[in-house]
Amino acid sequence: MKYIDMHCDTMTVLYRKNGDLLHNDLHVDLEKMEKGECLLQNFAVFTNIARDDSSFTWKVIDFYDQQMELHKDKIRKVMKYEDILENEKNGYRNAMLTLEEGSVVDNDLDQLKAFYDRGVRMITLTWNYPNGIGHPNFTYSKDSKENPLYTFNKKDGLTDFGIEYIRRMEELGIIIDVSHLSDAGFYDVLKYSTKPFVASHSGARSVCGVARNLSDDMIKLLARKGGVTGVNYCSEFIEDHNETYTSIQGMIDHIRHIAKVGGIDCVGLGSDFDGIENQLEIRDASGMQLLYEGLKSYFTEEEIEKIFYKNVLRVYKETLK
């Protein structure tokens, strides 16, 4: 069954390694996407603002464009919803460009239009550091005695600039992504947004209690907004105190819980491929049909279609311009 994956870090890693999308030793390449029956892969440009600035972001976008041109016989960009249908009809895989770290606009909302013009269609507002837009749920600190994965920020939400930022995103047709965002920030996005938004790579906090996952209340409200949670495959977000291995059953447990709490229409896939280091039972993008087979014990074919691609496709239809 075909699938849509809302988040991977493959393009950023490939840029650093001077690799190639056709074939590599990462979780995602075109050969693995074909074997796994990928319909659309979101490729995130991840910028660690403790180390890099927006110039790095633009370099990775240049690299993305080069890869798309080099392999245009196999994969094509998504700039609007209709591109997805047209590309599939013509036998191409789909690629959507996203940003992981919204502050790379350098406090200039005009830069959002510049990123949009280059193909960016989703932005994860924060990573693991506070920025001009808002705050993450936790911040890595060598001085902290608490486990940051279980540190929740229910106080610091979007800044005034952050509120204007998400409004401008919606005007342009860029999807708001709240993965990594603080709890307070999530509720601010809920308050100030007018369209469906996503948590591109987050799980269910009731199944695994880390701060990167969504509470049941968040899942319900996201569902009411028409949004989708893309289940993250990282072992630390699948099972408490597990840093080594992600089982298919663990992934299914999150999918089942999100569907139970928010309804079948609010759950999707957000692998975080090449942004996670633990072992995976599905191994990489080529193994996605193993998850499909596992879901058959719990969901109907129609429900699995929604989980694998239809829910995300609906959000893209409602938000992209």
Span from first to last CA? Answer: 27 Å
CATH homology group:
Metal-dependent hydrolases
Could you please say which CATH topology applies here? TIM Barrel
Q: Specify the CATH class.
A: Alpha Beta
β-strand number: 11
Range of strand content? 5-15%
**Poorly predicted ranges:** none
Query: How does CATH name the architecture?
Result: Alpha-Beta Barrel
Secondary-structure element pattern, one letter each: EHHEHEHEHEHEHEHEHEHEEHH
Rg is 18 Å
**Please, how many helices?**
12
Average pLDDT over all residues:
97
Number of domains: 1
User: Portion of residues in helices?
Assistant: 25-40%
Tell me the overall shape: globular
Summarize the structure.
This protein has helices at 10-17, 30-36, 54-70, 81-89, 110-117, 160-172, 183-192, 216-224, 235-238, 248-262, 288-295, 301-319, and strands at 3-5, 38-46, 75-77, 93-100, 120-124, 175-177, 198-199, 228-231, 245-246, 267-269, 279-280.
Describe the structure.
The longest helix is centred in the C-terminal third of the chain and has 19 residues, at 301-319. The chain is globular, with a radius of gyration of 18 Å. It is of the alpha/beta class and 321 residues long. Helix 10 crosses helix 11 (288-295). It has a single domain (3-319), classed as TIM Barrel, CATH 3.20.20.140. Strands 1, 2, 3, 4, 5 and 6 form a six-stranded parallel sheet that branches. The chain has a three-stranded parallel sheet with strand order 7-8-10. It has a two-stranded parallel sheet with strand order 9-11. The chain is built from twelve helices and eleven strands.
